[in-house]
Known about the structure:
The complex is a heterodimer. Chain A is mainly alpha-helical. Chain A has one domain (about 35-155). In chain A, about 80% of the residues lie in helices and about 0% in strands. In chain A, helix 3 (about 65-85) packs antiparallel against helix 4 (about 90-155). The longest helix of chain A has about 70 residues, at about 90-155. Chain B has one domain (about 30-155): Immunoglobulins (Immunoglobulin-like), CATH 2.60.40. In chain B, the strands form two sheets. Chain B has a five-stranded mixed β-sheet with strand order 2-8-7-4-5, with no helix packed on it. In chain B, strands 1-3-6 form a three-stranded antiparallel β-sheet, with no helix packed on it. Chain B starts with a helix and ends with a strand. The mean pLDDT of chain B is about 95.
Amino acid sequence: xxxxxxxxxxxxxCFITITLLVLVISTTPIGSHEATGGQLETANNAVNSAFSxxxxxxQDGGDASAxxxxxNTAILLIQRAVAENATDPNAATADLSNATTIAQRVSQxxxxxxxxxxxxxxxxxxxxxxxxxxxxxxxxxxxLRGDRVxxxxxxxxYRNHVVKKSDE
Amino acid sequence: MNKQTATILLASITILIVAAALTPxxxxxxxxxxxxxxxxxxGTAKGYPTSVAVNQSFLLYGFVxxxxxxxxxxxxxxxxxxxxxxxxxxxxxxAPVLATFWRIVGENQTWTFPMNLSVNQAGNNTRIIFELWxxxxxxxxxxxxxxxxxxxxxxxx
Lengths: 168, 157
């Protein structure tokens, strides 16, 4: 009797285990390597976020042309992933991952482009203001001391000049 | 040269130098715009297909120019419309998207690209609509630029 109960209990456990296994397998996504919509959205968001960083870096006067090219590479990878997702999901997943990485790098690098742009703009401002100050200073000097400087210069240039009468 | 003439000359030269030095600091106001063009299979504005079979691939080229003063994140949406599809500079077509082309175009640069398209349903006077969208950074989404183009197609079964 007890042996029969035991065997029934074992059978029941076995049944429950198999049911659980089936449930676990059925709830696991089929083809876990397939590129999901979430991965695509992540890659798209990463590219758009990187573009925003480039946009602000350019507004700060930075030259972001190299970053634009890199970001276009990421876009190409996303488009390739979308095209190949049905035939080669593993490659699509890898492409989306690479695109996200590239976009994140672009975002990081754009801050240095922004900084260099701001510095270049500041340098240009200082150069202009320096030129204006120097021009005004020299003009004031020329106005106030110009006569004396001119006379001294004239005397220096013609120090050996002998004036001869034209009728001699 | 008398003192008065010298003073005027000195002032003129000073004004010229100051103006030249300040020129880079003055923002230049330029007309900002984007360009959209659809080219035929040979890359010129001719030879557009007028009739194709269902699912038959046909080639067109897209042309986008950026003169917005800054890099732009463009998407060209190809939509399948018909005679009743409403599309204009303010309203984008409420129609299914056949294909999307996406690229970031630098300032004063152009983007020419092939578009291999096909239509999966038959119909006379099918309109292939091309819309240019660009990414609005502050709003964080793509917005219709108001630039669009189209070709008419008879799609035979």
